[in-house]
Amino acid sequence: QELWFNDSGEMNDGPLCRCSARARRSGIRHNIYAGENHLSSCDPNSNNGDKLYHYRITISPPTNFLVKTPTIIEYDAHEYIFEGFSMFSHKKLDALPLCKVIRFNIEYTIVYFEEKAPVNFTIRELDYFYKYLFQELLELVDLDLRAHGDSSGCPQYHFMPRFVRELPGNGKEVLSMNEVLKYLIDSSCPLVSKGSLSDVLAMPQHEWQRFTEHIKGMIVTYPGKKPCSLRVDQLDRDQDSTSQSSFPEIVHFGIRPPQLSYAGNPEYQKAWREYVKFRHLLANMPKPSFEDKRRLEAKEIRLQNMRTKNELKRNVTVTVSSENFHKTGIMCDVVQHAMLVPVLVSHLRFHRSLDVLEEKIKYKFSNRYLLQLALTHPSYRENFGTNPDHARNSLTNCGIRQPVYGDRRIHYMNTRKRGINTLINIMSRFGKTEETESNITHNERLEFLGDAVVEFVTSVHLFHMFPDLEEGGLATYRAAIVQNQHLAVLAKTLGLEEFMLYAHGSDLCHDLELRHAMANCFEALMGALFLDGGIQVADKVFGEALFKGLDDLLNEW
């Protein structure tokens, strides 16, 4: 009851997508990337070395990815340790902005390096491994590496697990893919078979400990169950039981999804707001009375009691019988790395779709990060790359048991805050003495700049076009051009809704909110064009969006 599973198109508390049928036909949030077409299938019995580009994926920092018991394959009297994934792309990857993701309150950077490709694999083997790990074990049923609507084509990227051993001279040997699959097949056996049950129950304690040490941290699976896979944290046997058919119990320490714990409980949220409000009130009192302090303490105790209720606790302990569970030989380090693959894939597919936008505006950015920033709505979080609840469930069920957490304030550092303290903090800051890149990862700063760019470009054109108009008349024209409703039309002309990154929630499902976000995105794009190419480039793109298909008016402008 406390293990959560993945269903296609569903989150833990309802449908993933509540968009209209028309809205579902476009947008990155619906896994539709501009410019992606059918890819003819690779030869399954070859490594396709003549048409695939190879990249090694690394993660920095390595916190929570280096575990005490990594997945190790023994072959030819050597140990091959899992170190991550290789990626094979159908097209050469340009130098793109770094892919960053916040997980466990730590900002990770996913980096890929082009390397000479290994030759000891076939595409069929990579497809078998992908299907087994990502679809059967982790149940990432909403993750699709093919172009939208392309059910028969090749995935945009192929992934290969890297089991390596060190060689003299700083070299590495990557284990052949057929040996990896052989290891997975050999490892797939009952956790405790019926035939060996009596022997397992009768084992001396030291043998039992040796047996369980090998299992701890491994992913086990029960095909057909929901969820089918989980991490073994402990294996307990009941030696005092009179029954000889009681299988050992798998103990799993999990985390209840936030929507179903105290964090998502409306009653708890209301009590928390009341507590924070009253605490703030007391902090600003010159001399709080004893009665006020007692009331604050009572509110704090009430919150504590709600947090410790069994049905609302975040941390849960799950025990299930080991009967019919099979070992996989995969430890949680493989899962940790695998759960970053969807994030990198969505980053690469997004930047490939931006090639289409650059063709539309007839300008290629020298700093592509500015374009990425202009299209990133404040609601967007690059956390999972697929259905977020599916990724959370798979990480909880199969990922590392006790991750190291960073500072949780990383999520709120750049969010809007109100109040006198915030105002004092802002007004007391000194400006930088030299040009510095901001660490704010959404488009509001560029929107602020782009608003001025649009106004300036419009003002200059109107000033020269209407030499006989007074200031009031010019202002009327300018107001009509720069108002949000009109900028949303220009954003639609450029098709910005196909490239925008924003949260797949109910906030932007309605046309009014979406149009407002598109207008802001257009202003941010103007700001990015100004920074990257100067005012002439911003002026040219603005003019062509304003009079697309109307050459006479464009020339007049």
TrEMBL record:
Keyword RNA-binding listed: yes
Annotated GO CC locations: microprocessor complex
UniProt keyword RNA-binding, yes or no: yes
Any GO BP: primary miRNA processing
Coiled coil: none
Gene Ontology terms, MF aspect: ribonuclease III activity; RNA binding
UniProt KW keywords: RNA-binding
Domain (RNase III): residue spans on this chain: 354-534
Pfam family, any one: Ribonucleas_3_3
SUPFAM superfamilies attached to this UniProt entry: RNase III domain-like
PANTHER family with a match to the protein in the record: RIBONUCLEASE 3, RIBONUCLEASE III
Name recorded for this polypeptide: RNase III domain-containing protein
UniProt organism field: Homalodisca liturata
